[in-house]
Amino acid sequence: MDALDIVGLEKTYDSGTKALRGIDLKIPEGSFFGLLGPNGAGKSTLIHCLMGLAIPTKGQASIFGHDVVTDARQARSKVGLAPQEVNLDWFLNVEDTLDFHGGYFSMRKKDRKKRIEQLLKDFSLTDKRKDRTMFLSGGMKRRVLLARALMHRPKFLILDEPTAGVDVELRLQLWKYMREVNKAGTTILLTTHYIEEAEQLCDNIALINKGKIIRTGTSDELKKSYKQKTLEDVYLKVVGRSELARTTLDQSEVSK
Ligand code: ADP
Question: For 87-107, how does the pLDDT look when each residue is reduced to its tens digit (9 = 90+)?
Fold first, then answer.
């Protein structure tokens, strides 16, 4: 069964903005899937529709077979979301942040305890367990966000621009954790506008622009199909800014 199955999803906001114009997307279980597109492409709207934070105007989406609108509770229980903004409760310590989240998903105390120990270890947070989130470094806050998203053992993890605005060192560190989570069997949907991030982490990438998925494939497939040497150039072509391309192959070179 696919982790995510989206058919004809549309979202028009009350303001009249058509944020999603018919999205079709399947993400197989186990995939590390990238949704790559510029600001305003509709990435957050798509995630909000999946999480029940926005109601689709048309179309369907299901997570491991559970419709995100008609079976929202079940669908939601299968997903962990690490949001773009650091929305931790500043007055809770790390351990309680995880514990409350587990409680919210009806995990039993004994199970929560076990899971917390595991996550603190996995994300190198054990010696920070009693620290209030307010006093953590930026890198640790991001790790807590990831750990919290995973607390209820979701099979599907959504990472919304997880490295927006973070420095190189932290980005690489987060990449390492994300890879480990995926290797351990969690399906990941990563939204990003960083081309390198999608290329480094994702086995498949969907290019999204103006509320539509323009094309899906591996980085190599996308380069081949757009006859470009780099994913950056593919991206520029898709968003209509090819004049910015740093390398463009001519037809003859590609066909060799
Ligand atoms: P991305 O996450 O790719 O940057 P968004 O989904 O945030 O894109 O935005 C897609 C479009 O929808 C943009 O034109 C944006 O201004 C608009 N939009 C996003 N959220 C809302 C909202 N709550 N109300 C009205 N328009 C919105």
Answer: 999 999 999 999 999 999 999
pLDDT tens string 125-154: 999 999 999 999 988 999 999 999 999 999
What is the 191 CA–ligand 1 centroid distance (Å)? 14
Q: Report in angstroms the alpha-carbon separations of 96 from 104, 133, 143, 144, 230.
A: 12, 10, 15, 11, 44
Q: Which domain holds residue 133?
A: 88-153
Torsion of CA 115, 118, 120, 121, to 10 degrees: 180
* Cβ < 6 A, ligand 1 pocket: 13, 15, 17, 19, 37, 39-45
Amino acid at 98: L
Q: Is residue 221 part of a domain?
A: no
In a domain, 114, yes or no: yes
In-domain check, residue 82:
no
54 domain residue, yes or no: no
Question: How many Å apart are CA 165 and CA 143, to the nearest integer?
Answer: 15
What is the 102 CA–ligand 1 centroid distance (Å)? 30
What's the number of domains the chain is made of? Answer: 1
pTM score, whole prediction: 0.91
Q: How far is the CA of 33 from the centre of ligand 1 (A)?
A: 21
User: Ligand 1, atom 25: nearest CA belongs to which residue?
Assistant: 13
Question: Sign of the C-alpha dihedral, residues 109, 113, 118, 121?
Answer: positive
